[in-house]
Each structure stands twice: as C-alpha cells, then as structure tokens.
Amino acid sequence: MNIAELLEKRRQGWVELEHMCDALQSIQYPFANRGSQVSRFSALYRAACTDLAMADQYQLPPTSVEYLHRLVGRAHSHLYRSRRFGFDRWIRYLSKIAPQSIFQDPCVKVAAVVFFGLFTLSAIIAWSDVKFPGFPERILGKDQIKMMKDNFDKPLKGNFNQYVLMAGFYIKHNTSIGLQCFALGPLILPSLCALGYNAVVLGASFGYMARSDVEQGDVFFQFVTAHGAFELTAIALSAASGLRLGIGLFATGGLRRLDSFRLNAERALPIILAAVVLFFLAAFTEGFISPSPLPYFVKACVAVLSSGMMMFYFVVLGYPRPDIDRELENNEDNPWRKIGVDRAAR
C-alpha cells in the first residue's frame, strides 16, 4: 500500500477531528463526557500531525497538504488555546457563580452558626453581670480588660497619617486571624475550636463594653460599629473555606483523596475570595472611618449599608432559583457543576 492510499484510509479520522473542531467553535462547552472526548481529540490531533508530516515528505497533492495544514492548525489552537477571563465572564462569576456557591455550601452555614452563635451567647453572658458575674474576667483576663479601658478612655481623634498607619496595621492583623482559621481548616476540629475561641473572646469584649457601668463603652462602639460587620463575616468565611478543604480530605465521596481535595479546593475558592475582599474592606474602614471623629450616626449608617450589601450579595443573589440553576449547571466556572464531579471521579 502506498502513502497516498494510506492517507486516504485515514481520512475518516480527519473528518472526525474537523467535526470536533466545529463543535468547540460553535458551542462553549460541547462535551458531556469531557475526559474521554478530550483524550480522543488529542489522539486525533497527533494522528493528523503524523499524516501532515508524511504528506509533506512524500509530496502529495497540494490540496491534501493544505487541508491537513488547516486542520492541524485549527486543532492546535483549540487544544493549546489560552483561557481568557473576559469582562462578561467576570461579571457572571461575581454576580451569579460566587454568591450561589457560597450560599449553598454547608461549610459556610456551619461556620456561620458556630461563630455568630457563640459570639451572641458570649456577648449576652458578658453583658449580664448579675446572672453571670466574673465571666469577662475569666475569658479576657483582667489585664486585657484594663487595656481595653485604657485604649478607649479618650475620645477618638487622629490625622490622615495615623489613619494610613492604622489601616496597614489592621490589614495585617485581620489577615492573620483569617489565615489562622483557614490554615487549621483541613484538620476540621482545630479550625472549629479556633473559630469558637475568637467568637467567645470577641463576644465577651462586646458584651462587657456594653455594660452601663463601663464608661469607655461609648467610645468603644464609636470605634467598632462601622467595620464590625465586615470583619466578623470575613472571619466566619475564612474558617468555612478551610473547612471545605478539610471535607475534601476526609469525606471523599468515593473519589480518590487527591481528586476530592482538588474538587473541594475549587469549591472553596469563591469563599476565600469573598473573605479576602471583606477583610480589606474591614481594614480600610477600621483604619479611616472607625477612629475618625465622625458622628456616631454616620458610622451606624456605614454599618447598616455594609450589612445590607452583604445580605443582598450572599442571600438575595445566592438564593437558589431554577433559571440560574439551569444556567450554571454545566458552566465550567461553577465549582458545584455536575461536570466537575464527573471529571474528578475519573
């Protein structure tokens, strides 16, 4: 059999490769079974490259050589193309995929219940001096309480240079808390303990400073009101993202442990991004607005506005709706897509 006859017999593979290129060009996510079809596409591409080399070497008709050149070029561009994250894709990810992923993640709900539940309970107990005497002293320690009183003994004031320094300090401080909760996440129980500890300590601080006999309470709430919602939510989300990684290590759902970890790391990404954004918002608010001599009404409005924004983003945009669920079901940016589970299972 000569080369021309051999290449003619392999024409069926060229046609199949051309059809797959047409599918990739006309539809964004055409493959239902991505693993096997991508493998088939790669095999056809390599075979076409071999056929092109033989066609060039044995000087087959120019039409056949030109056809193979175009086919190999198309396949190469599809196989090795860069994935561009365009503006419309960013908008879809931020407005639909991220809030939907965060809302439906059980780890977020567990972290929120643990943190805000213990925070509220600790604040109420610390505030009720009659029923629970000595609780703040046992949680915070007398030295910590004295330091809080000294820090908020005088009215808030400052200048722009001080605000910049404080913003940088709080970015570092807030990030360290979030990293601690996130880093312990793969161990699950230590992360929940760290989250619960921070909740109890912060709640005891708020509850103690809210007592009527603590004179420094007014200045304290002048300082914490504006940034509190951002900071507390960011801590809970940091722990939730770490817990999501831990779930991937211990509850594999039948997948290989490494594949399960990769899949859950993908699902943790929207939570991590949300926590980072909230930490930076909290830090800049804590550095520029919280210590400023602005009226308490302005700071309270900032707190209400920030809480409303988070409620809208995480609850209103994240609440499951059939039309959005259908749209995101096979979207490759959606970490909860069915195709992601199928891919990891392979």
Structural domain count:
2
Give the mean pLDDT: 80
Strand content is: under 5%
Per DSSP E runs of 2 or more residues, the count of β-strands stands at 0
- Report the radius of gyration as a whole number of Å: 29 Å
Low-pLDDT stretches are 339-346
Globally, the shape reads: elongated
Biggest sheet features? none
Helix content: over 70%
N-to-C SSE series? Answer: HHHHHHHHHHHHHHH
Given the helix and strand composition, which structural class is it?
mainly alpha
Number of helices: 15
- Termini separation comes to 40 Å
List the helices and strands and how they pair.
Layout: H1 3-9, H2 11-26, H3 34-57, H4 62-79, H5 87-104, H6 106-127, H7 135-140, H8 142-151, H9 160-183, H10 189-209, H11 217-250, H12 257-288, H13 296-316, H14 322-328, H15 338-345
